[in-house]
Fold this protein.
Amino acid sequence: MITPFSVLNRTYDIEAEIAIIGAGPAGTSTSIFLARKGIPHIIFDKDDFPRDKICGDGLSGKVVSVLEEMNPQFLQDLYNMPETFLGSWGVYFAAPNGKGVNIPFRLNGRPIEQPPGFVARRIDFDSFLVKNIESRLANPHFNCPIKSIERNRQGIVLTFLQDGKVKTAFVKVVVGAGGDRCPVKRALTTYRLAPDHYYAGLRTYFKNVGGMQEGNFIELHFLDEVLPGYFWIFPLPGNRANVGIGMLSRDIRAKRVNLREIMFKAIKENPTIRHRFEQAEEIDSVKGWGLPLASQKRPLSGERFVLVGDAGSLIDPFTGEGIGNAMFSAKIAAEVIAEAVEKNDYSAGFLKEYDRQLYDRLWDEINLSYKIQRLVQHRWLFNFVINRLHKNKRLMDTFSLMFNDLDMREKLKSPLFYLRLLFNN
Ligand SMILES: Cc1cc2nc3c(=O)[nH]c(=O)nc-3n(C[C@H](O)[C@H](O)[C@H](O)COP(=O)(O)OP(=O)(O)OC[C@H]3O[C@@H](n4cnc5c(N)ncnc54)[C@H](O)[C@@H]3O)c2cc1C
């Protein structure tokens, strides 16, 4: 909505060039990357920190590589806190028939020295990022929910609450980092929830789950009832685990299922899962939240705004990982915004550069994940692949490489890969 001249004769509680709305991984990463360039900004969050975020708590290799780029010391800090950040060395996939394969994370095919991924409660990871914001340049406003966003010719007017009082801020450009229900997305775009491109997820915490994998592998159990979604067990320090389930919204609606019931049925009855929970104790309640998937290409910017992380629907459509893409999108957004500041150009035309750069780097990977997501809906194919891999170590090694190398992963799309599985014993 353009309201000409509404800025005239108005005074604001804060005036700044840039505001970031949301201090999850996308918002804090944008802040840290902007600060590295010496660019001042304000960062808002409706909550104070530490605060929880409903998640599986898996921090993938992409998170690790963006953290390293932000500041190599950050990674050392995580390695030095094993009681909070549990190093994870791979992923275990179980097909609907219950058979599973372990896929160690590798770097260019080589085994690695330090853990390539982590599992850590979001209350801890997000606080870690918040602590690393440079408050000299970032001007954090936490416990300040954004109530409305109005765009006019001169800039953006944000209305927010602080200590029960209504306040306003005037900025030139706004970064929407408010997650799935981001107020920037709601005010400045026409995004609608697309049930084909959206997962619903539930998670809870258990302690004393039995039979956890060596190397703290994260476990994805592809259950018949939720394909292409899955049930997960992600190990946490202190013999705890994040346990959850995700399913496409389209399928939940079509099949009218109760996701919570499916999750507890798996825990109580699934032949490959139930024995793991015999001594386990639930230590939190089940909580749910949405996962906006990247499988539909959407505009990520417009006049005076960019969207990062879940606000831009950037979650991997196969694995459900969103933290890595949230942080990666933040890095690209900060680079484009730095140029926009220099040129004093916050037009839709200029900020479109963010969409271009981000999709140039991520689209192949997203597209491939989407194809794999659709392939695993064929349970017979999934069962078949896992059965064959089980029998042949060499094939298993090739498959393991596929999950660490995009070019190799391309082969999953090729009929030749399946023929090879069929005839290779
Ligand atoms: C059940 C479940 C399991 C998942 N498991 C994983 C996993 O294991 N690994 C993984 O990589 N990803 C996982 N994801 C996805 C991951 O949680 C998200 O992709 C990630 O949190 C995105 O980060 P973000 O910063 O974009 O948004 P968020 O983390 O949602 O942060 C948004 C921030 O904006 C703030 N905010 C919102 N509205 C306002 C407002 N009006 N004013 C001010 N502030 C506001 C919020 O308080 C919040 O701090 C999972 C998601 C779900 C739901």
Summary: The chain has a mean pLDDT of 91.
